[in-house]
Amino acid sequence: MEWLAIVRWVHFLAGITWIGLLYYFNLVQVPALAAAAADKEGPGPAAITKYVAPRALFWFRWAAVVTWLSGAHYLGVMGKFWSAMTLGIGASDPYATNIGIGMWLGTIMLFNVWVFIWPKQQKILGLVPANDEEKAEARRIALLASRTNMMLSIPMLLFMGAASHSLPF
Amino acid sequence: MNQPEALQKSLAIIQKQLETVQGTIIAGLVLSLFLIIFANIIA
Questions:
Q1: Does residue A101 belong to the interface with chain B, where contact is any CB pair within 8 Å?
Q2: Which candidate from A26, A147, A169 shows the least CB-CB separation from B36?
Q3: How many domains does one find in chain A?
Q4: Residue A83 falls within a domain, yes or no?
Q5: In this predicted model, what pLDDT tens digit does every residue of B4-37 receive, in sequence order?
Q6: CB contact, 8 Å: A165 with chain B?
Q7: Is A107 contained in some domain?
Q8: Is residue A111 part of a domain?
Q9: Which residue, A83, A101, A119, A131, has fewest beta-carbon neighbours within 10 Å?
Q10: Mutate to test the interface with B, among A117, A139, A143, A154 (most CBs of B within 10 A)
């Protein structure tokens, strides 16, 4: 059995779950919550924040962990972890340069998920106590961190793919 | 313009870009271009 192929498969599955939910938050949930709050005759945003957001956040944050661990394990088994960390500088290794840039972007994104997005979302959703002012600040930081991750995901996916294929130029 | 001032202005520009989905995608594309050039230099 080819163990690396299984690890790569897990990395893809978890990565798609993570980034898919990141795009769901940015492209669907954030504008939907704003529209629901603005629609005074509608059902309001409560159903989204009570039933949808906690489940989406559960899969989102744990998929991020599985993606990073499976990716790091894959590079470790290949003996490329440290050369990727150092972006292949001095080693003339385009694979390490490309996967390394992707890995650093993914690592920053994982940091954002667990240090900014999840703690702030816990305040927004009322899972930890917070007053209105703290909630407003949490909303602002969570949105910016989520948007930062969406921005970083664009080059991250390019460089992850380019490691085994190529960059546009 | 000194360095902290330039950094603050740059961060303000990025923050403004991230206000909208369109701005976020444009920022991601610009960052991709910058990183491609960077990768070509260090490779």
A1: yes
A2: A169
A3: 1
A4: yes
A5: 898 899 889 988 999 999 999 999 999 999 999 9
A6: no
A7: yes
A8: yes
A9: A131
A10: A154
The whole-number pLDDT of residue A141 equals 96
DSSP string, A50-63: IIIHHHHHHHHHHH
Number of H-type helices and E-type strands within chain A: 8, 0
pLDDT in the model for residue B1: 65
What is the distance, to the nearest Å, from the Cα of residue A41 to the centroid of all Cα atoms in its chain?
34
Work out the minimum CA distance from A1 to partner chain B, whole angstroms.
33
Alpha carbon distances (Å) from A31 to A37, A38, A109, A158, B35: 10, 11, 22, 26, 30
Please judge whether B39 and A98 are an interchain contact, meaning their C-beta atoms are less than 8 angstroms apart. yes
Q: What is the model's pTM?
A: 0.93
- Put simply, the answer to whether A154 touches B29 (Cβ < 8 Å) is yes
Which stretches of chain A drop beneath a pLDDT of 50? none
Q: How far is CA A25 from the centre of its chain?
A: 11
- Of all residues in chain B, the one with the smallest CA distance to A162 is B36
Q: Which two tokens stand for residue A8?
A: 């790569």
